[in-house]
Each structure stands twice: as C-alpha cells, then as structure tokens.
Design brief:
Helix content is about 5%, strand content about 40%. It starts with 11 loop residues before the first strand and ends with a strand. Strands 1-2-3-4-5-13-14-15-16 form a nine-stranded mixed sheet, with helices on one face. It has about 260 residues and is mainly β. The C terminus is likely disordered.
C-alpha cells in the first residue's frame, strides 16, 4: 500500500489457488486479520475468521451468487481479478466490478477491461469510470465533468509463466478522487488517492483440492444472499453449527437460531 506521499507499507500477504473457474483466496493482513474467499464455480463464499480477536468462538461468512467475490474486501477482490478471473470477461463483456475500495460509488462505476491474449485470458488492464456525479451515504453531488471521470486503474506490470499459463508477477491498482469544483474538466483531471502494489513471490502447480470454499470452524454465522430473507428480516442470518456451508433443505441450519432453512 502506498499513500499520497509515496510512503509504502505492508498491507497483506495473499495466497491464491485456482482450478478452472474455482478458486480460493487467503489474505493475512498486517494486523493479524485473516479473510478468506472461494468459489465452487457457481457461487462465491467469504469468511472472516476473526483471527485477531482473542477468545472469539464465532466466524462470520457471506454467500452470494456468481464467481466475483462481491463480499470480500478490496485485496481479495483484486486477487480474484489478477489470478482467478479465468476467461470470465470473454463472455461477461459488460460485467460489473464493484470493488470495495470505491466505497459508496462502487455500484455506479462502469469498467473497461483489456485481456491478455494468452491463456487463461486474465485482465491485464482495467479502468473504472464514474459519471458526472459523486455518490455518498448522505447525498449525490454533481461534478464538473463533461464525460465523467477516471475512478481507478488496474495494471499488470509484469508476468510469469506456469506451464502454459501467463500469470501476473507484479500488479498495481490506483484509486482516484474527482475534482468537486471548476469548469468542465477532462476525464483524467483527477487526484491520486491511493496505490496498491502486489508482488508474487512464487507460482507452482499443486495437487487436487476437493473443496475451494473457505473451511468453516465449529461455529459460524452466515448471511446467504441466495435465499429469500423472509421471516420479517432484511437479511437471512444463519447459525451454522456443523462446519458446513448452507444449502437448501439442510435441517441442521437455523435462521438466526430459530427457523430451519427450507427449499
């Protein structure tokens, strides 16, 4: 992580395992926090192990449809973009990429993706563009742009080969802040807010992985966006006491400790 003064500090160590459209991403942060994401190729799973909280017996997880780790933090989402988005943008040409780093504006940004010509067709350049408005929790503010502004840029700065695959070895993500004053401005008339740089230490082939989803502990509370909330709740909060991710018809799951999940 590089701040606006150019000072670099360590943010996280990451490990990514990939097989086709399945992946597992682990981020071990500087403060001891351990966040994990994974996908079975259809849904994405995210787990906070609360590793930096002594005495915490519970873990917290989220399940959402699709391969993109929508509930993960920025570092995990960038790991997916750099290493696990195999052929994703070949068919999903207009896919949304609401990175957490864009905060309230994430859902309002559009992205342009340039892919590597070699397999596994991973993104080598992604640019995000904002509209002529800035969105926050309290207001939507007009901006002095004719065609919106550049909000972020992801670049693979060097690559390495693993067997027949071309993979990133260094990458960079820049976040920009638009100007709120002035006359009509160009898209690139923005200020650099933060830079994230990633460096790969090693790449190697590994054995088979049976389940790419994060491994749950004995006690976890899961928010599952695939199920309707119901029961007068905005979100479906599930108590998991058997170490298994939720699935319809599992009578061992309890909605907020009260109601079983049904199909």
């Amino acid at each position: 992580m590089i701040d606006r003064s150019g000072k670099e500090s360590k943010w996280t160590d990451f490990t990514v395992s990939v097989s086709g459209t399945k992946y597992r991403i682990l981020n071990n942060y500087f403060n001891g926090e351990l966040l994990m994401a994974g996908s079975d190729g259809t849904n994405s799973y995210y787990l906070n192990k609360f590793a930096n909280m002594l005495g915490s017996a519970w873990e917290s997880g989220w399940v959402s449809a699709g391969q993109f780790p929508a509930k993960d933090e920025t570092a995990g989402q960038l790991c997916w973009l750099a290493f696990a988005a195999r052929n994703y943008f070949v068919t999903n040409t207009h896919a949304a990429l609401p990175l957490k780093g864009f905060q309230e504006n994430a859902e309002f940004l559009r992205s342009d993706v340039t892919l590597s010509a070699r397999q596994p067709r991973l993104p080598r350049l992604v640019k995000w563009y904002g509209s002529n408005f800035w969105h926050s929790a309290s207001a939507t503010v007009p901006l002095p742009y004719a065609q919106g502004f550049v909000a972020g840029e992801f670049v693979v700065t060097s690559t390495t080969n693993c067997e027949s695959l071309e993979l990133p070895s260094t990458l960079e993500m820049k976040f920009f802040i638009p100007s709120f004053t002035g006359s009509t401005l160009a898209q690139t008339n923005v200020a650099l807010a933060q830079t994230l740089r990633g460096r790969v230490i090693s790449v190697k082939a590994v054995g088979n992985i049976d389940d790419f989803r994060p491994k749950l502990g004995a006690k976890a509370q899961i928010v599952d966006f695939r199920f309707p909330a119901g029961f007068g709740r905005d979100l479906l909060l599930i108590d998991v006491l058997n170490g298994q991710w939720p699935r319809p018809g599992d009578t061992k799951l309890r909605v907020a400790g009260v109601h079983p999940i049904s199909k």
